[in-house]
Amino acid sequence: MSSSMVTARSGDANFPSRLRAESPRYGEKIIKALLATAAAISVVTTVSIVISLLGPSISFFQDPAVTLREFFTGTQWAPSLANPSFGVLPIVVGTLMVVSFALIVAIPLGILLSIYLSEYAPKRVRKVVKPLLEVLEGLPTVAIGLFTFFWLMPTIVKLTPFLPWAGPFSIGVAGIAVGLVIIPLVSSVSDDAMRSVPRGLREGAYALGASKFEVSLKVVLPAAISGIIAAIVLGASRAVGETMVVMLVAGAGNPNLSFDPTKGIQTMTAFIGGRATGDIATGTLDYNTIFAVGSLLFFMTLAMNILAIKLVKRYREVYD
Amino acid sequence: MATLNSPLPKRSQAAALGARAVTESVFGKASVQLKVKNLAFYGILLTALTIATLSIAAILIWSIVEGHPRLDLNLLVNNPSSISPETAGYRPAILGSTYLIAGVILFIVPIGVASAVYMELFANRAKWYNRFIELNIQNLAGVPSIVFGILGLAFIVRGPLSLGFVVAAGSLTVALLVLPTVILASREAIRAVPSSILEGSLALGATLWQSVRRQVLSAAFPGILTGVILAVARAIGEAAPLLLVGAVTFVTFDPKYLEGGYSALPVMIYNYAGRPQEEFHTLAAAGILVMLLLLMSINSIAIWLRARSEQNW
Questions:
Q1: For residue range B70-118, what is the model confidence (pLDDT) as tens digits?
Q2: Which residues of A touch B42 (CB under 8 A)?
Q3: Would the pTM count as exceeding 0.90?
Q4: Yes or no, beta carbons of A278 and B118 under 8 Å apart
Q5: Which of A88, A108, B20, B273 is 20 to 30 Å from A81 at the Cα level?
């Protein structure tokens, strides 16, 4: 709607005087100010997030026990031991392992689903499949975590006895479960992108003799590629921040640097969730560590989200 | 096939036959190989669909199979117990979640709708700060939930608001978390109302706010309601931020808004799941089942509302 144009006009000095409002309409202005205040709350939220993260993070790096260099390059993560070390790499690796496994599951499944939804599914089937994916999206992650820990994990262990499983936790299986969590996001964003590809492109390809799957893979997919990449980036960002599934399936325990998907490895979110259980005293190094890891998490996802928003904007500009 | 029984002149007949021959030579020959490829691809698509559907089914079936032995009244009315898992229940957690959600609704409905109205109808998009608000909300929607927990811990439980580990703090934290969902859904709903409705009202002399309130908002109401319901559904299942703002305590008393400890359904489930005894795992699965039933009834209300008030402009 172009109402901002409407409001802009009525203040125009060149407007014929008989069409100008008779009263200054203070009520309208007050209401506009109230509405703007409500919208500003979300800006205040973001600012508060940044302040609440940065304050303790700065104290964290000012602590004599911590150096920036150790934080980013150290390979020992043991913040609460008597002789602590603060190399964040092990839990970053844990997070990246989760993201990789999640994407291995969600990229093919999500994109195939979106191709099916936008190119193949009859309207009636689409009307069933879409809500079905919304059900998956709406499932509490605790439920998916529990299901994975008590059923999927033992099942996978039974099916692959040749893998060196040790203990009840596995970062790889956690990643697969997180993949399930992000499938609806990936498929709905790339479905949007594919549906905004103009029909003319498809019809042109059909007229040249292309078959349906050629149109889907060689015309629609490349034309929607920026939206599809946005979908993947958004999915990855969601996977970085996923907490409950990871805490349940990968455990909050093992902070050692490891690339073994059959072992439980701590992630950034699992560290925060496991450590910050309320009884930590404000201002201690332990407390500040949570915020330092939180900052890293926040800025990682922020970068990914901004990238995704830019990509979506690009295909919108081209096609809409 | 040889002749077209029509009164066409000979030259057009020949042209039509030629065209048909060309078409058949293009599509006829390659058809077997192409058909196989097409079918194979369609098969792959259906496999993906099946995998997704089966995963959803597996999660639902697992929670029913695991949880049904404990689907009794004790589950709802009893306090948690670490000694007798056979009769332990979710009472404080269910009450905690209810209080939590009530607070969330009180916060997100006015703030969410007002933000959406401002951004969609009042804000001048040529101004940088309005574009900034928009970008900010899109970003906020992607901030991990546990980061909202950190915000809650630093600013709501402690810091400026210093509410302590109480339901109100959890409520505000989760409300801020789901606020972007409501704003984005409400904006969609408002955008779906044709501008002629607003313009018609303005042309009749109504002020912008009068037109928005009486025409646009009432037309967008079902869409906004759907957005609110989806946000509430998300708020019910959210556990991670609550871990940080105090909902981990194993409480055996009913919660109060501004004092004392509290628990919430997903957090209690997580707590039960972490205990070694088998009975607690059944209890956790039964909790999942309660939560899923709750979510399903909420979602079906949303679907029903959407279907009932769907309007074609």
A1: 888 888 888 888 788 888 888 889 999 999 999 999 999 999 999 999 9
A2: 120, 213
A3: no
A4: no
A5: B273
Q: Are B212 and B117 in contact (CB under 8 A)?
A: yes
Query: Which one, of A226, A209, A210, lies nearest residue A218 by Cα?
Result: A210
Place of tokens 């259906």: B46
Burial of A76 per CB tally in 10 Å (0-12, 13-18, 19+) = middle
Which segments of chain B have a pLDDT < 50? 1-2
- Express each pLDDT in A1-49 by its tens digit: 444 444 444 445 555 666 666 777 888 889 999 999 999 999 999 999 9
Which of B41, B119, B146 is the mutation pick for testing A, counting most A CBs within 10 A?
Answer: B146
| Cβ atoms of B297 and B269 closer than 8 Å | no
Q: Is A2 an interface residue toward B (CB < 8 Å)?
A: yes
CA A11 – CA A7 distance, rounded (Å): 7
Touching check for A149 and chain B: CB below 8 Å?
yes
User: Is A32 within 8 Å of B155 when comparing Cβ atoms?
Assistant: no
pLDDT in tens, B10-38: 788 888 888 787 777 766 666 778 888 88
DSSP-derived 3-state class of residue A271: helix
**Beta-carbon contacts of residue B139 (< 8 Å; ≥ 6 apart):** A46, A302, A305, A306, A309
Chain A's closest residue to B27, CA to CA, is A209
Query: Which helix or strand (DSSP H or E) is residue B83 part of?
Result: none
Please state, in angstroms and rounded to a whole number, the distance separating the CA atoms of residues B261 and B254: 9
Nearest to B269 by CA among B58, B84, B103, B97: B97
CA-CA-CA-CA dihedral for A296, A300, A302, A305, to nearest 10: -160
